[in-house]
Amino acid sequence: MLAKERTDEHSEKVIEIKSLYKSFGDYDVLEDATLNLYKGENLVVLGKSGTGKSVLIKIIIGLLSPDAGLVKVLGQTIDEISYAELLALRLRVGFSFQNSALYDSMTVRENLEFPLVRNRRDMTRPEVNETVEEMLDAVGLSQTINQMPSELSGGQRKRIGIARTLILKPEIMLYDEPTAGLDPITSKEINKLINDVQERYHTSAIVITHDLTCAKEVGNRVAMLVERRFERQGSFDEIFSSGDKQAQPFFDYNFIQ
Ligand SMILES: Nc1ncnc2c1ncn2[C@@H]1O[C@H](COP(=O)(O)OP(=O)(O)OP(=O)(O)O)[C@@H](O)[C@H]1O
Predict the structure, then answer these.
(1) Using an 8 Å Cβ cutoff, are 179 and 190 in contact?
(2) Any ligand 1 atom below 6 A from CB of 229
(3) DSSP string covering 34-76, please?
(4) 51 C-alpha vs ligand 1 centroid, how far in Å?
(5) CB-based burial of residue 98 (10 Å sphere; 0-12 exposed, 13-18 middle, 19+ buried)?
(6) What is the pTM of this model?
(7) Which pLDDT tens digits describe the chain residue by residue (257 residues)?
């Protein structure tokens, strides 16, 4: 079954953002922004540089506070919970950084062990080994276990970064520009991995990207962040077959350079 056939608009909201406002001084980044992430879907957020996509992610994981509005993640209202509750919630939300953020002085195995050693002190050594091996298998890179990040290609580093985020078995994945800087073939492999992760681990995900191929291949739904709000939410085809003026610049950016 294709990923995009799975969206159930009536399913549970794992992230609920309602009338969100965020400004820095006089500069309004988000204004009356509303967006839901439904359980099990991959939601693509498309937005030009500087429109507030990183601010959105920081608000979702509680690194920035909203000025007004509701932000609920896995049933918890972000600015009402204690710091301890926030830390516990962050373990259920995996954030895959744009630059993969691997530790250069650690092997692939050590990079993957790191979140487990810090957060899962209950796990035995054989359990840690087994989980690391399972995650490497999930991203198709079992053979790199003893390599250093500098020995990996950009695409492999992205995959290891995703494996390291997945290792705590988060319910929600936040992918920040997962295909940035990759060639089209490697980008396709990452898109496939995002769909495989959804399928295998039943994650719900927000994928932030400028890459329309990525949006088309992984997005059960697409939301465009335009002028401080999430405009135009719908399937890729609904948004991009309409000749929409706000969607057109993304087409131009991707295909007419
Ligand atoms: N802590 C901060 N203090 C002041 N301004 C900020 C802060 N964080 C973000 N901004 C501003 O908010 C706006 C949105 O930034 P953000 O990083 O979310 O953009 P983005 O959509 O992720 O861009 P890109 O695609 O280039 O990564 C920018 O104008 C940025 O300068």
Answers:
(1) yes
(2) no
(3) EEEEETT-EEEEEE-TTSSHHHHHHHHTTSS--SEEEEEETTE
(4) 7
(5) middle
(6) 0.88
(7) 344 444 555 589 999 999 999 999 999 999 999 999 999 999 999 988 888 888 999 999 999 999 999 999 999 999 899 999 999 999 999 987 766 678 999 999 999 999 998 888 899 999 999 999 999 998 899 999 999 999 998 889 988 998 999 899 999 999 988 888 888 888 998 999 899 989 988 999 999 998 899 999 998 999 999 889 987 888 888 888 766 676 766 666 665 44
Mutate to test the pocket of ligand 1, among 23, 30, 54 (most ligand atoms within 8 A of CB): 54
Q: Which residue has the tokens 């291949």?
A: 217
Which CATH number is 40's domain given? 3.40.50.300
- Single out the residue in 121, 140, 169 at which a domain terminates: 169
Name the strand (E) or helix (H) holding 19: strand 13-24
Measuring from atom 31 of ligand 1, which residue has the nearest CA? 50
Please state the domain count of the chain.
2
8 A C-beta contact, residue 21 and residue 31: yes
- Ranges of beta strands (E only) in 84-217 are 93-96, 172-176, 204-209
Q: How far is the CA of 15 from the centre of ligand 1 (A)?
A: 21
Question: Is the CB of residue 54 below 6 angstroms from any atom belonging to ligand 1?
Answer: yes
Residue 10 sits in the same domain as residue 65: yes
